[in-house]
Amino acid sequence: MTKKWKFLYLASTALLLAACGNGNTDTEETTEDANAETEEVAEETPADEEGTEEEGSEDPFAHYPAIDMGGRTIKVATWWDFFYDSRHTDPMDNPEVGNVENAQMEIDNVRRIEEKYNVRIEYENLGWEGMIDSINTSVVSGTPDYDIYTVDLQFGLSPAMNGYAIPIEELAPDYADIKNDQTVMTPLDTFGEEYLFAETAIPQSATYMLYNATMLEELGLEDPWTLMENGEWTWDKFAELAQAATRDTDGDGNIDVYGFGGVTTDTTMEFVASNGGAIANTLDEGLSDPATVEALEFIYNMYHVDNFARPYSDDWDGQYNAWVDGSVAFAPVHAWSLVSNGPDLSYDYRIVRWPQGPNGDGTTAGEAIGNHYFIPTGVEDAQAVYQIFEEFRNWFAYDIDLRDNYDWFETAFTSVEDMDLALEIGSSGNGDLWKYSDVNGGAGDALYNIFMGEMTVSQAVESYRQVLQDGLDSFRAE
Hints:
- The chain has helices at 2-17, 25-44, 100-117, 127-139, 153-161, 168-171, 213-218, 224-229, 235-245, 264-274, 290-304, 316-320, 335-341, 382-392, 400-403, 407-410, 416-426, 434-437, 442-452, 457-473, and strands at 72-78, 119-125, 148-151, 185-190, 193-199, 208-212, 258-260, 328-333, 349-352, 372-374.
- The protein is of the alpha/beta class.
- The chain folds into two domains: 14-204 and 370-404, Periplasmic binding protein-like II (D-Maltodextrin-Binding Protein, domain 2, 3-Layer(aba) Sandwich); 208-364 and 412-473, Periplasmic binding protein-like II (D-Maltodextrin-Binding Protein, domain 2).
- Strands 2-1-3-10 form a four-stranded mixed beta sheet. A four-stranded mixed beta sheet has the order 7-8-6-9. A two-stranded antiparallel ribbon has the order 4-5.
- Strand 4 (185-190) and strand 5 form a beta hairpin.
- Helix 11 (290-304) runs parallel beside helix 19 (442-452).
- The longest helix has 20 residues, at 25-44.
- The protein starts with a helix and ends in a 5-residue tail after the last helix.
- InterPro entries: Bact_solute-bd_prot1, SBP.
């Protein structure tokens, strides 16, 4: 955990120390010409066509004016293999293709985009480290290697907030989906600014509280789902059940089953949110906020006073997967981990909302943020690039039944009720960005010391609140 936050600090520092100006007059003039051309087209677009298909039109993309890109290749950097782009001609080009029919629609849309705009689109997998290197070198110099970057916020938020990304307000024309219905693209609000955007999709990145239903039933304990439905699922009730589940099952004098086990990030995000707190949902630190402190005290007691939480260690994978072998009663989980491990579990499981804290309202969850895109400053014809990319990702032609494929997501859950709850949780994030904005390690180091028992909550908060604030201050506009 410590190494992780130190790495983020070094990456962010490199960005902050880099030169801000791009010094590329030719690129700036070209971009201004392209923006003027796109704005002129937008002024000519009838008001009733903005953001939607004109009634009765056979072309759902008629409101996007054609732009001749002269055979240019729009390059998109990512850190995993992407399908499909201009290099692909067959659904089977993706060795893990799922829905072949939808894959063919994506390929057909690629061909349509190529013809309409005289352009090619290619993704390049740079890997995690390669992505950071490209941002820290080419983007901060004003001569980006790629037209679009696909980023995790751990390395995407800092350049966006420090002037290396074009604001969406300047980037997207008025008729763009992102400024209207947001069926295709959704902007990300980062402390009141919008530089990053992502494809509108099923909210499937949330953190859920899993409980071992078999274990609780065998112990004769109350069912958390029933408690939740009755408005009785609180921190106190959770602690009562977790304490009862913590025991020595083999008689060797050592506890081998714990009431709770999970990693610092997920655990903190959700208990803070369940108490109505946030560590960094504004540019003013919330580590010292009373609701946050109360949540941290509850976590500290779980690990060091009541001792029903699995003792924390630097074994991140071990902590993250503590629930898989059935040695904890409650754990933070994600849909992808349930899909991977759920079928092989030796017990029945369910998910439930995180228990309500004394200061919470029972409806708020930690923020669930996946990958986002940004277009860096210095990209030629940036408005045209954005328009083409938005239309390129709209392979489903506004038919959200095609876009929203629940087949994968639903395999994570054991009932329709659980899946519906998961979708609800995924849509109720509190906007807390501490995992991504803590550029100097403030919150990360504070939590590490709390979980490891090396500091009390008051000591950790007092030691690191200003460190966190200094990191947030680096995002403030000059």
